[in-house]
Amino acid sequence: MALFDSVEIDLKEKLDPSIAESKPLSIALGMFDGIHLGHQSVIGSARKEAEVSGGCSGVLTFDPHPSKVLRPEKATPLIYPRFLKRKLIFDEGIDLIIWKDFSMEFAAVKAEDFLPELLSRFPNLKSIHVGANFRFGNKRLGDVSLLESMGKDIGVDIYRCERVSRNSEWISSTALRGMISEGKISLAAELFGKPYFCMGHQMKGKGLGSKIGFSTLNIPWEPELTPRFGVYVVKGKKAGGDDYFYGIANYGVRPTVEETDRPVLETHVLAGPTEFSKDNEMIIEWLDFIRPEKKFSGIEALTDQIKKDVAFARKYFNLQ
Questions:
Q1: Which residues are within 8 A (CB) of 294 and not within 5 positions of it... i.e. 6 or more apart?
Q2: Confidence band (pLDDT; 50, 70, 90) for 28?
Q3: Which CATH superfamily is domain 170-317 in?
């Protein structure tokens, strides 16, 4: 079996598969965990080249993360699950996503064989777009210079996209993971170019929030990379909708009332639409971290703290 025979291809809605196979193909290549500003630069390079050439733009990425295969005892937790990575890539205006299974066999492929194998699977390949520090092949011996040399010999244009910095710091998925796990969610938004978010259907709670005057919209959220448990200022909407609501949310395991091992984001809506059903898929954007989750002495102490959190959020949003 050829190296790229076993790939899964996601097409943009209403894209004719025959067009994708016949037009010049420009591919952004990488893991792209988080789709931060650096990733967006590489993906945007492929999209722009496809626009110029009248071709199709694609992203070739890997599942699972290579670390899960090469060093499973220290596997890198992904920022977003695959379904959200897919959404974010298509949000960048890409025509198709090529998902390549990362295996030990794939990891053992010589760097010199990578590009010829890719071209044999996608003969309409016109260009490849990568970050300046991209590595590939057995023992990661292949670099962008090798890719450029092979591309010149084989007739594929190689675009090296320089790294992107923010406040004199390189933007990276590693930096983002640290920020999210530490609750530095507003700093993470600067690297994403948009707020960190979660997406899911409502789950029915036990109604305790309503009993103490703070009803909540509950979304289960269990990504590989767990955000810091705590209280956040958030805004949200129905997936596909335009009308935002504004609120205060607790993410964690609810230690005061019912400690569980399944974290949930519980959002109390302060302003905006409030009528939602369990069938609605919701998007919640996390704007700022207020305080860590903690276990209170009882419901009364919890209620007093929630009132303070609500007051903070109202001031944050400038709500009367």
A1: 255
A2: very high
A3: Riboflavin kinase-like (2.40.30.30)
